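Render this sequence as a predicted structure.
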Amino acid sequence: MNLTRATTVLLAVALAPATLPAQEARWNELNGRTQQFVRQGRYAEAVPVAQEALRVAEATFGPNDPRVSTSLGNLALVYHNQDKLAQAEPLYRRALEIDEKTLGPNHPLLAINLNNLAELYNDQGNYAQAEPFYRRALAIQEKAHGPDHPDVATPVNNLGTLYFNQGEYAQAEPLYRRALAIREKTLGPNHTEVASSLNNLALLYHEQGKYSEAEPLYHRALAIQEKALGPNHPEVATNLNNLGLLYHDQGKYTDAEPLYHRALAIRAKALGPDHTDVANTLHNLAGLHRDRGNYAQADPLYRRALAIHEKALGPDHPSLATILENYAALLRKTDREAEAAKLEARAAAIRAKKR
């Protein structure tokens, strides 16, 4: 299965009293630059700016101010997008504690932190931990904004992805459709969040073998992202990767390969060579070579994808099971039965674990 990260909302800037105007102006400027870098997928450049914003906020406003929470959440989000989940989690948790204390249990900014922490657990494969955070975020946003607000669409979409990741497609589809309807109505048909919903719905159909329903959604999502974000954004790479996988699964190998290579180049440049999104495309490209009978080309790609996932997510993440199984299939084709059996046993053990 090809994995995608659902849209994660960047934390909004909290309002502040008219004190310390120079320091606050500096904090706002740093926050704005962080947001711009994140929108552009320039995460490495965002890190020092987000770190400085946090330093300024703590020094100026004190450790428990909502603006500190905003800076913590923004820095956590940057680390999250870089797959530095261990660094992101304590920042999300500290931001959540500040928000609960200063804003109360039902504030929309609290819902953003709840959603983002749920995203982190979802990405870790800790689905049981993620779900109550998503549901609480959704309840807060619906109470604050009503059922058809874009801020409601985010936890709806992400809850759909939680179910998708567990193979619960019947539960995921109505959530994806609701998120798409809200976004198209409130943001317009060419917004990047609409593209994210289109991609997720396409991937859902794709996984169910509904290729003719998936393909136009992938194409529409790709057109929106390329126009809005440019040709080299990580979100564009996600759509390229997924469209390549669709062609791959239909046996259209000559159509799939250039899409994989373009997605891989974008991801490696934007996210670094050890990001799990890079590993996902490597895994897909390995499968393409295996299916074409190019076993010698497939083997190092599987090994590299496996190494990246293990380093980033640990040895028991659900995504590893798929890579292990596919690599084992390659090993069996090259008469390496003992190695294949070990990988299959490991994959079975991962899948047997409750999440």
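Summary. DSSP finds 16 helices and no strands in the chain. The CA atoms of residues 274 and 308 lie 6 Å apart.
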